[in-house]
Amino acid sequence: MQDYIDLAKKNGVVLYDTGHCQFCGAATKRGVHECVEIFSLGFQQIDYSRTENHIYRFLSVDAHTLQHPEIHGRWNNHFHLTRLHLILRQQVMWNYKLSPELSDHLNRYKAQHMDEILNPPQPLIVDQSPL
Ligand SMILES: [Zn+2]
Which entry of 2, 32, 84, 111 is 20 to 30 Å from 61 by CA? Predict the structure, then answer.
């Protein structure tokens, strides 16, 4: 997984080290750090050497990324939202070969729509006191 701490820093996002996840509101004690750790645990439970299981990785990565959009940057969010749309709404049977194709399409789209942004929901305001 790309280092989310470096990504946040690059995108000017300050990460809180305690309390609930500042982005998705998960009831963590160590903020987004614990949220990312919990997310990573799921990858150990599924055999990704099996092609039929790849879909779970695509869906979970897309969902987690979009639950933490401030970290990843706006065009990354376009990628994950578009992929989810293609999988869930258009019933595209996604595979690893399609991801670079989607990136290429988004790069062409981006060149003509530089001002377009996805407006993520407001960051969840939660009580930051310890649980
Ligand atoms: Zn979270």
Answer: 111
